Predict the 3D structure of the following.
Amino acid sequence: MMSRSNWIILGAAVLAAAGGGWLQHASQRARVPAGLQIAEKGDIVPDLALAGLDGKEHRLSDYRGRRVLLNFWASWCGPCLKEMPSLVQAQANVGEHAGNAGPLIVGVAMDDPAQVRAFRAAHPVNYPILLGSLDSPSTSLRLGNVGEVLPYSVLLDENGRVVFSRRGVLDADDLKAWSSPAAP
């Protein structure tokens, strides 16, 4: 049986943990500039224009009519690099069956363009890579990545509406959901 002093210590630890979690959440929300609309589940994403490695501008609306998985990554991000082979395989699996109307992965590099080009030259992928803006508010923040953690993925439906988002590495179930006709 625990003594009174142990109960007090346990209670103080629980309160400290709860307070720390709340402060962490509040500090992340504090980084969102006043008046900035952050895309959330059910929202249609803003029609952002992002540069491609091909030097052309690509708008998110260019992908309307297709289910799109936006995957935010960086060349220095270990979990991002671990995730890439699964993304390449997932795109290969749907690309064989769907053609130009099927689901598409779009990588959004939150990194220096020269680093991205060098990385891409050494590690080719079978999906387009666009360059996200690192300036505040960053591209990933505008699309719901409040903590600006990488990797970060956002699934858009055919109308550009956010279906789900995920911080961290996507697992096999996430990729199956993305590629299925009745995505979550």
